[in-house]
Each structure stands twice: as C-alpha cells, then as structure tokens.
Amino acid sequence: MRWRCAHGEAPAVTLACARTVALAPEDDSVDSNLVHITGSGAIASFGKGPPIIKRVLFEAGITLEHSAKLQLLCCMNRIITVPAIGLYACDGNGHWNEVHFTETGAREISRRLDRIEARLEQIERHLEP
C-alpha cells in the first residue's frame, strides 16, 4: 500500500495587518504553522483557534496590543520597529500567549553596515590629495 504525505513545512501564509489577524481560523484557510504579517497598524487579537503554536514573521510598523486575548511576554504593548519573529500558542479559546519573541537581526546588520560605510568615507577622505 502506497502512502503519501507532505515532507517539510508548508510555505508561509501571508496575512495583512488588521485589528484581528486570524492565525488559525476554523475553516483551515491558514494551512501553515508559519505566518507572515505584512503592512502596518495595531493587532489586538489573533482570533479563535484550536490549541496550536504558530511562528509569526512581522514587518516593521506593527504594534501588538497586550490583553487577555493576546498575552505578551513583555506584559505591555509591543511596538515592532524592525523585522521580528514570534511564537504564539493558542489555548483553543481564542487566548494567545507569546512563547518567544526576537528581532531578526536586521537592526544589528544595519548598524554594522553604517559603521563600515563611515569608516570607508574616513579612509577616502584620508587618501584624497
């Protein structure tokens, strides 16, 4: 008997930033554990969902609002100013808990590139006749 199954993880599902971004709707329209939220604005809830953990990629310009429906590790609103990644667990009743949150490192890379650029400008000024 042949058996077919998916290998690896499903591709990311892209959702627009909104007051409620449904990460795991009952109709299974977000059929991936990886979600990319685009745009800017405030998110108050990730909607109802089954007991599940989702990995979420955020763009800069998004604010997560801490509440009973969206409990954040920092226990206050989170303003995302650089690309970031979070893990969120749903209890099956529409309450989402942040399990982990981190910036992607884009801020540090930009800082380092800015320092390199400034150093190159210094060298070029030094080499000018």
From TrEMBL:
| Domain of life (superkingdom) | Bacteria
The protein's name in its UniProt record: Uncharacterized protein
Species, as recorded: Bradyrhizobium zhanjiangense
Taxonomic lineage = Bacteria, Pseudomonadati, Pseudomonadota, Alphaproteobacteria, Hyphomicrobiales
